[in-house]
Design goal:
heterodimer; A: mainly beta; 7-stranded mixed β-sheet; 4-stranded antiparallel β-sheet; 11 strands; B: mainly beta; 6-stranded mixed β-sheet; 5-stranded antiparallel β-sheet; about 0% helix
Amino acid sequence: DTGVSQNPRHKITKRGQNVTFRCDPISEHNRLYWYRQTLGQGPEFLTYFQNEAQLEKSRLLSDRFSAERPKGSFSTLEIQRTEQGDSAMYLCASSSPGSRETQYFGPGTRLLVL
Amino acid sequence: SQQGEEDPQALSIQEGENATMNCSYKTSINNLQWYRQNSGRGLVHLILIRSNEREKHSGRLRVTLDTSKKSSSLLITASRAADTASYFCATVRMDSSYKLIFGSGTRLLVRP
């Protein structure tokens, strides 16, 4: 068990470009969550999956954002036509069926949009 | 937007002293959790307290919950320089998502 991993750890892009982040949860964790954290603030919920089904999306998740978890294992978060306001840390977390209350977080992907 | 507010926003203490952080929230909850985040890193789960509990201990951590006031406190006793981090409370509502609603955090600096 190596914990939740996220790639890349850092991403610098120009405004208007598309970016994709990947999250690999702890194996056998059926729930996977995405959060966004801006500087000096707490994380904000974006969306979550139970297995491959996306069950809830925050209003923060505009139509430029899309998340997938095609086989119920890893997940990707894509941002199209990035804007400077998308600059943030994107955090992924997972939880197990037997302990849904406790989420294990990855190290995050820090995005900077120039 | 965040559900909760934390107080103070920043706290600076000497090693060995106790640190107390407070958290307020707005809606009914299933449980409240405290997380720690070192600069630029992911979050680490510290402790969970359920809505029917009033106090919980884990090592040097003591958490209280007052559901009538919709508030919680985290006490770190005998602080160490390694406790320097940001601390966040997060609430879980009474729904099936178990998503975390975070406060704005307290930045703790423990001076050696």
